[in-house]
Amino acid sequence: MVTTHTTGSIVLLTRLARLVYRRSSEELLGIRLKELAALAYLRDHEAATQQALMQAFCLDANSCVLLLNELEAAGFAERRRDATDRRRHLVAITPAGKQALERAEHAQESIEDDVLAALGPEDRVALRDLLSRALEAPSQALADDEHVAVRVGDDTQRGRAQ
């Protein structure tokens, strides 16, 4: 019996991500890749919570604050208290952030053209749709896990059994 091994999707995605990362220099994009990703998220999720940003990028609170400090210092994003829940921060992209994002995305098109040269336009759309769908499930699972962890922590802290 002949066993054939096929490289798994995660390994292929990791290799592709490394190609993109290596080619996405700050000089080419005008901003760092992590800033591009955060700004794109903020553009696509108007007035996102800081917590949502942490979950979307699997960041701890400290790393998220550092990233947001950098974006705010550059004038690309702003944090403000949520009027309905003063404990939460809402994060919004600024007009300068939108301009920086547009420049970076335009520069990244050449990287995408190089990295995905073997794919036609329809395949690229399909790839983007598949990746978007794949990212939705872990984000929801993280949100659910975070909610459970907080609830369990609160119950444990108050001495109640589950």
As for the number of domains, it is 2
Give the overall pLDDT as a whole number.
Answer: 85
- What is the CATH first-level class name of the largest domain? Mainly Alpha
Residues in helix, %: 55-70%
Instruction: Output the CATH topology of the largest domain.
Output: Arc Repressor Mutant, subunit A
What does the main sheet amount to?
3 strands, antiparallel
Q: What this model shows, in words?
A:
With 162 residues, this protein is mainly alpha-helical. It folds into 2 domains: 14-117, Winged helix-like DNA-binding domain superfamily/Winged helix DNA-binding domain (Arc Repressor Mutant, subunit A, Orthogonal Bundle); 119-162. It contains 7 helices and 3 strands. The protein has helices at residues 9-23, 26-29, 33-44, 50-56, 61-73, 95-115, 121-157; strands spanning 48-49, 77-82, 85-93. The chain has a 3-stranded antiparallel beta sheet. Strand 2 and strand 3 (85-93) form a beta hairpin. Helix 4 crosses helix 5 (61-73). The longest helix has 37 residues, at 121-157. It is globular, with a radius of gyration of 19 Å. The protein starts with 8 loop residues before the first helix and ends in a 5-residue tail after the last helix. Residues 146-162 have low confidence and may be disordered.
Summarize this, please?
The protein is mainly α and 162 residues long. Helix content is 67%, strand content 10%.
Describe how the helices and strands are arranged.
Blueprint: H1 9-23, H2 26-29, H3 33-44, E1 48-49, H4 50-56, H5 61-73, E2 77-82, E3 85-93, H6 95-115, H7 121-157
Antiparallel strand pairs: 1-3, 2-3
Helix pairs in contact: 3-6, 4-5
